[in-house]
Structure formats: structure tokens, C-alpha cells
């Protein structure tokens, strides 16, 4: 049908459904790792995953995260060994799943593929049509053609079918769900007595000996890390912007060679009435459906102006029947062929005979025709010039990036040769450490890969240029150490006041704990509530009336015998002793929340089943990991 196949509506700009299976499936592959440098970064079912694929996948994930997170995006999160490992694990799992899909001969029909594309809301026009030009442009921006995207989407929909079939079988055992909900619902009546730090702070006398002992015992807290002062040069796309020009002749030539890109194809609006019947239905069912369709067709021909009302009363397409059978704008290549051919063969206002498709019998009416239009050269000139300039800049950047990398490496005693050759400015930065500094934000020199190179043995011992490091898409940096300062320890006098404050708090906490533990011991012996405050209710589903750390301890306490007592250090406050005097269940359970909890447990069971299934596929596919995450960037492919 035209409307009920709406299984995925979200568009991840550029590449849709990169991987349907949730990321939790693809963790914990350490047992597969080995160290074979000649077979790509990994092999799955004998097929290797190249380092280029690994790096490309990392770039895609970074780009997608940058678009989704905006100003909150932090690229350093994606440069950790854990992030790189997760991406490689995803690629491995994707290959294993694809191998299984091929073995199982799973497929997606053309109709489902077409409707999934048509349902991408970002390309729906105000009149209901599909923005084919915008769709192609979005794919082109990602280096894809519609044919390439069709192939990827068809595969990913098959993956979605596979994962959905497995997770759909998951459910939460009622006894387990009820038990967990009972635990969440449980309420404990609690009384508190707090031994605050403020009571004991005046009792603490910190001596010089205590300060020195703390300083010596916690030397790592007062360490100043090794630092460097460095020179560096940055080469990025903006460097080449003024070096490329686009002429009017080039714009005209491009326009003439790509006229189809500036032509909007004819669009037709249509309505239909659908009488459903499967192609593999019995002969009797097929005959009955055709008979009903013929009767409806006769009614339409007798009352052609009442097509919408007849469709609303008779059409079995749930998506369009209530709107009088309106299909909106029908683009060529995006609908079932038999229906599309009929629509484009008729004149405006004309009604078809019976048209058969895999969904059943259709009666179609063409409600509007929008002729093909062509964008003029003058109108398109600005966009073409911008696109051509971008292409030239990309080519120029690639050319000069090689010059940048080679010069920085070949003439490594100084950054001046590469700066002079490419007209770059040599900049200076001080107090750089091995780890990125949050205060420097997204500065090119605050990149973890660049800092690793800058603190490398060759850079420090020989003061040579670092290799060119790509710190962001189309951004290269090379640096050179000017001054190296080894790690040092801050003088005791400099941190004396800081240490005295810490020791005072620690000693006050020790005194509070001693007093609290004595109260706890006495309360357990007597069982009374002397000295405790008014009772409050504590549960897992309500905002706690006591400190959250204390609430966790109270809810973990053994309440098989009441009253129950528990003592806990309350961060920043002191030491608390808590008396649990009563345990109860609410008179009216929250049925909606319990249902939600049961569903969540079912989802967790489904996720575990999917995890187990993918692990089995990995084993079947004979997965082998040949590198570790910190080797990303080394050439592991066979030449």
C-alpha cells in the first residue's frame, strides 16, 4: 500500500540508517584481538576492513555528532581509544550482519524502498511533492548517487527487519517485572541524626608536621606536568581560498553539460482508490477483489465528480482513503511502476481503468499536471560558481596539503621553509601539556593527536617538526618544540594553605565518623529512637527527603528485622546515622509506571537477545581484529 509502509521517517542528513542495530551490541571484542598487520584492521568472514574504512567511519560519526550537538560538540570525546574501538566494533558487527542477511536471502521490495525515500520529510514540498533536486544535492554532498543510496538503504532496511524480528520476541516475565516494581514502590520510614563537620572543625589543630606528612604522601596532587613552548603552523581550506578563481566560461560550460541538474521534471498530482488483494491470494479471493474493483469503477464512471467521496467510502488504502484517495504529487521513479505509468499516460482530469499492482487493484485519477521547468543560466550562475569554487578549493587543498606534509617532514629542522612556501604564519604557544586543556577549546594545538606528536621523542630530543597532523576535516598542523620543561613539584610553601584546609576537613570528618559510629552502635543495642529526628518517607520513585547518598544506603539496608540502622558518610556534611522503623507498599500502585517499567525490562531483554545474536554471528564469521585503537593512523593495509 502507499501509506502504511512508513517504517522509518527520520532522516540522518546524507547517510540514512548508517547502522540500525543499537551500539550496545558492539562492545567487548577484546577476545578477538591479535596483532596481524598484513590483513587490514580486521577481517570478517575472510573479508578485510581497511584502515581507510575505519577512518572514514570515524569521520562520519564525528560529522554527525557535530551536526546534532552544535556548540556542545567536543571532538576529543571521539579521539579516545574507546571511541575508536567502538567504531571498529560497529564495522565488524555490520559486516557480520550483512553476511547473515546475504546467507538468509533477505530482501526489501522496490515499493518499500520507494516509500521509505518518499517519507523523508526534509524533502517534502509544501504542495506534497518530493524535492528531487534537493534530494540529489544532499546525496551529492556526501559523495553518493541515488543508485548508491538505494543500495545502502535497501541493505539497512533488511538489517532493520532482522533486528526487529529478534527484539520483537522479547518480553519481561511477569514475576520479574512485578518484583522489580514492588521494590521500586517500597517506602521506608526513616529518622536521621547527623554529626555535622561544623561541630568538629573548631576541635582540629593542624600542625606543620601534619602538613608535611600530607604533602609527602600525596605528591601527585601537587605535580606540575611537563610542559613545552612550541611554534606551529596551521594549513586549512581557507588558506587556498584566494588562490582559485572561477570564470564565466567555466560556469557556462558546466551549466550546458549538466542541464539535467537544473531541470525540474514534470510532476503530476493524483488520487486513487485501492481494493487490496495479495498476488499470492487464492483465485477466489482475487476474483472477489477484482469484482469489487469493477463495481467501484462503474460507480466512478457514472459519477466522475464524486471521485473523492467514492474513494473515502471504498478505498482500502488506510493512508489516503480519508483524504479522498489523495496521493499528493507523484514523482517518476518513486512509485509502483504500474501505477506511475498509468498516471503519466493520462491527461489532467482523466480517470483510469483498473490498474493492478502488488497491493491490489487501483482506480486512478490525475488531478493536476505541473510541466517540467528549467532554471536559467543567470539564475543558477551564483550557485554554480560557488560549487565550482568549492571543487577547485578541494583539489587545490589536496595538492598543497601534500606540499605541507612533505616540506614539514623533509625540512624538519625549522617551520620556516613550509611557512614561506605556503605563506603561512608561524605562531607560538606556551605551557602546552600532554593532555588537552579545556581552556583552549577547539584550538588546533589542543588536539590530542597533535599533542601526542609534539611530545614525541623525536620532537623533544631533536627539536624536529612534528608530522602533519589532521586535527579536523581539512585542517593540518605541524609543530616544533622550542622549550621543554620537565615535570616538577609545587613548593610546600605554595600549597601550605590548601593542605591545611584539606587536613582540617579530613580530621573533622574522622571525628564526626567516630561520634556517629558510637551512636550507631548504641542505637543498635537499645533499639530506641532517642536523638533521632522526625520520620520521613524514602523510596526509589520519589525525591528523597534526605541526602541522596544517605538515601541509597537506607534503601540498601537489610530490613528483615526492624528497626534497622545504617551509618553513612554524607559528602560535605559529616556523618549520618539512620533508623528505618517501618517498611510499606503504597495503597494505590502507579499502574502506568509499572507498565512502563515492564516495557523497559522487555526492551532490556530484547537488547540482550540482540547482543547474543550478534555475538553468535561474529563467531560464525570468524572475526579477527588486527590492530588496537591507538594504532589508528598507521598504515595497516596491504600494498
Secondary structure elements and pairings:
Blueprint lengths: L41 E3 L2 E3 L1 H19 L11 H24 L5 H9 L13 H10 L4 H22 L6 H12 L1 E10 H4 L7 H10 L5 E2 L2 E10 L11 H10 L5 E2 L2 E10 L6 H20 L4 H8 L11 E5 L6 H9 L5 E7 L2 E11 L2 E2 L2 H34 L5 H7 L4 E6 L15 H7 L2 H6 L6 E4 L2 E11 L2 E2 L2 H35 L9 E4 L8 H9 L7 E7 L3 E11 L6 H31 L2 E2 L14
Antiparallel strand pairs: 1-2, 1-19, 3-16, 3-18, 4-15, 5-12, 5-14, 6-11, 7-8, 7-10, 9-10, 13-14, 17-18
Helix pairs in contact: 1-2, 2-19, 6-19, 8-17, 9-13
Q: What is the radius of gyration computed over CA atoms, rounded to a whole number of angstroms?
A: 35 Å
For the record, what is the CATH homologous superfamily label of the largest domain? Porin chaperone SurA, peptide-binding domain
CATH-defined topology of the largest domain: Triger factor/SurA peptide-binding fold
| Oligomeric state, counting identical vs distinct chains | single chain
The CATH architecture term of the largest domain is Orthogonal Bundle
Mean pLDDT: 84
Shape: flat
CATH class of the largest domain: Mainly Alpha
- What number of domains? 4
Strand count, sense and barrel status of the largest sheet are: 4 strands, antiparallel
Strand composition percent: 15-25%
Tally of DSSP helical segments: 19
Number of strands: 19
Q: Roughly what percent helix? A: 40-55%
Distance between the termini: 50 Å
Widest β-sheet, arrangement of strands: 16-3-18-17
Structural class: alpha+beta
Segments where pLDDT lies below 50 for 5+ residues? 1-38, 633-639
